[in-house]
Structures
1.
Amino acid sequence: MQEEKHLTGTLVLSVFTAVLGFFQYGYSLGVINAPQRVIEAHYGRVLGIAPIDRSAIDFTDTNGSKSTLTLYWSLSVSIFAIGGMISSFTVGWVGDKLGRVKAMLAVNVLSIIGNLLMGLAKFGPSHILIIAGRAITGLYCGLSSGLVPMYVGEISPTALRGALGTLHQLAIVTGILLSQVLGLDFLLGNDDMWPLLLGLSGAAALLQFFLLLLCPESPRYLYIKLGKVEEAKKSLKRLRGDCDPTKEITEMEKEKQEAASEKKVSIRKLFSSSSYRQPVIVALMVQISQQFSGINAIFYYSTNIFVRAGVDQPVYATIGVGVVNTIFTIISVFLVERTGRRSLFIAGLIGMLASAVAMTVGLVLLGTFAWMSYVSMVAIFLFVIFFEVGPGPIPWFIVAELFSQGPRPAAIAIAGFCNWTCNFIIGMCFQYIADLCGPYVFMIFAVLLLGFILFAHFKVPETKGKSFEEISAAFRRKRRSAIKGHKAATELEDLRGSEEA
């Protein structure tokens, strides 16, 4: 089969090496969850504040100590996303200036520095070192979360683009799961070892650094951006093996001609040009729906939610979520090329909506019926399953599919910025909103999910099995038909007006 021949050792190595960036992103997302009490207690000792009992029902705060610790804790969680927000805007420039591989090599330095600061947190003011370390790691992940889909999207054959794109999410959930397992108190999630736990993803950064030296540059970047035809052919031969590269070279030539006919696309041009408006709106909305679906509330605060639900060993329940997360992400790798992006995305959102409602019912009635804790737990697991089926993996690679080579770096930059901004808002605000709304907090996400379902149904296109050029052409056709429809409606109104006159 032609598709199987495409999957060469070099392609596998290159994709694996690139998605190590997403593994670090997942590890950084999950690592802060399990040792929350240990780190809060340490902050309390450093700052001279009593620790918080988050499982208590009474949330009165007589001396402001709780709000101070909550502020430092929320900042430790969410500063990671601020780093990502800042650096994600520079993805297009860095990727074009250095090339995809050299850019990934360079940004690994940020990851190593950030992880060192966290690993040495006990040797200084720990709250400052953790917040600074997570901010710098966030800078790395913001760049990496744009560069990796760009590189993987450009080196993948069309037939495998969806499946290989889903590996971004698999790397994230593997990172989350490993951080949760290592976060157990008898492993690294204890008072002695938590700095090592926080700084451990620096090892993945070192591994990625050395493996990247073996990876070929993106042939699309070499051919379209630099005009190095022979180098692009060599790179393509390494990635595809014995397969005939003629079809892909022809496709790149088409894209190059299209890119040459349009000026370099800036972020401002993406928003001002009518030809990019529809794909930009879709790109931003899939990112917003991924983050505002409530999934990061589960990742950041799942241990705490299980405590509220009355689970005796909440850390093990959180690890259970991580295992389910990983299994269903692997399943989505096989589903995405068979079922299509759009239908999986919508099905996932509908399942998450039902789960959010069930979770709310379980938490509200927990005081009346003890068995409702099981309803809440099952709902959390289902919520995660449906997320991993579609809304989790698809936004990472669909943005690269929606745009041709010219506007792609700028589009990935704004989509990344949008994703990180939403990530920050959730990380910073969820603890406060949860304290304010109590068990009704997931109804907010249920309402948002309903909006995302309606948007996806009417606006998100199917990109399965289509070349970048075909997807761009589909948007152009939609725009032309919309303009024709608008003109026809205007002419009809004018005609009616003249008749009435």
Note: The radius of gyration is 24 Å.
2.
Amino acid sequence: MTDSIMSKAATMEIPINSNGDTGTLPEDDSLEQAAKLQWSLDEKVGSSRGNRDLQQVMVSGPNLNETSIVSGGYGGTAEGIIPTSSIKGPAVRYNAEFNKRIPVTGLGSNMHHSSSSSSMTAEETTRGVAVEKLETMKKWGLNTYKCTKQMISERFGRGSRTVDLELEAQIEVLRDTKRKYENVLRLARALTNHFYNMVQTQHALGDTFADLSQKSPELRDEFGYNAETQKLLCKNGETLLGAINFFVSSINTLVNKTMEDTLMTIKMYENARLEFDAYRSDLEELSMGPRDAVAMARIDAAQQQYQVQKDKYERLRSDVTIKLKFLEENKVKVMHKQLLLFHNAISAYFAGNQQQLEQTLKQFNIKLRPPGADKPSWLEEQ
């Protein structure tokens, strides 16, 4: 019965008027009843396998990227075929159990997101470094301005400065001592150079006397005595040079390393003192001004900076005091040893006491260089 009704519905003609509207059909009720009957049969037959068929279709169905959409009617040309791969849009996947569309994020979007995040991070890092440098330059410029202003005020007698009389006196004594020790070092080096030339002259003179002793038989004994004397003086002179070189090296270490290190700390202390006075003067000027909200905020900031500079100044002043104390003790110990060495070596040499001269070097653990060691090796010359 169903087949006969459907075949009848399929063979019916649908009249169309001149405006393209369908006309009134006498058998519309029959077609409607046939459609309802077909729908009820399909529902009864397919209800038991609906989900299973849908899952099978979704699993084994064609690839969406390879399907096409036909835009014409039946029997149309191929011009109406549009490949689905050309359609742009977010990819989706189906959940067969819940019959839902779930968007799928592609690899390209992840890569784009990661690259954009990394570029943003690099940009933020660069911006942070630039801001930090700008703040550093700003603080340096403000500090330099205040210190220069304080220095000019002190030189023209319009500004006050913090003075520690006892410490300033010790610093002046140290600077004067350094100048005097530098003079001692300069003279000792000059003595070393002159004495070295004398020893080299004595060595050459001894060789000449020895050569003449071999070539002049009538004066062999006289030339021989003088050659031996010059060689002995040359040997003792080399021993004395070892003692003087040790003396010069110790004085050089004391002046150019120990004292210089203390003077560097003193320089840092003086800079801290200047900064402290600059911020102190700034705080005093602000304290004498108005007391509104903006001024109070500036006074609080100046008070904090003043406290920081005060702590720095007091710390460096303590460091200078300690270093001056240790420097004085070290200077006395070193100079006591070096002056005793210099006196004993010079006395033994000019007294002709070779044993005492050698004993002096052993007493101070001085080792002489072998002959020819004064010339630098080829590796040291590189």
Note: The first strand starts at residue 68 and ends at 70.
